Amino acid sequence: MQTKLTALLIATALSATALAAPEKFVLDTTHTYPSFEVNHLGFSITRGFFKETEGTLELDRAAKTGKLEATIKASSIETGLGKRDDHLRGKDFFNVAEFPTAVVKADKFIFEGDKPVKAEGNLTMLGVTKPVTLNITPMKCDMRMGKDFVCGADVTTVIKRSDWGMKAYVPFVGDDVKITVQVEAEKQK
């Protein structure tokens, strides 16, 4: 009886240790979409998204820690109007010839229970690095279609684009930019 109890305690301790280990994920590039909204002349909201994003996520839900690193290819911007997209890729806005990517790195995660609700880190864009706080809602981790273990969420923040040197047409084109990223990340085996 004591041998069975000892074996059960060891198995429980080992499984708890395995669950407590950090989980590593890769962003699913087919289900991760950074998008933005910015006011246009006070009349409407211009929306767009970036088609190419890659990155990694590490979560330790037991320790309530995490790390995120995501790289957005700035030239993959899409607003539905080719001429506007070309202008946004130019020197007035993203200047993709000189700054081909924007990078988000976050290493301070704030949890409620076992789910992260905020991540604090930095956004590097146009050669400027500034702090950002990312709001995370809702965070769900589970099997996707019975094949892959995936975590997904909507991540949002609001930045002042002029803080990164993107000052063209402010205030006519809004300085405040709402960013939303629909994220799915696949657990690495």
Structure description:
With about 190 residues, the protein is mainly beta. It has a single domain, classed as Lipid/polyisoprenoid-binding, YceI-like (Lipocalin, Beta Barrel). Helices cover about 15% and strands about 55% of the residues. It has two helices and eleven strands. It has helices spanning about 1-20, 80-90; strands at about 25, 35-40, 45-50, 55-60, 65-75, 75-80, 100-110, 115-125, 130-145, 150-160, 175-185. The protein has an eight-stranded antiparallel beta barrel. β2 and β3 form a beta hairpin. The longest helix is centred in the first third of the chain and has 19 residues, at about 1-20. It is elongated and about 50 Å long. The two termini are about 35 Å apart. Mean pLDDT is about 90; it is low at about 5-20.
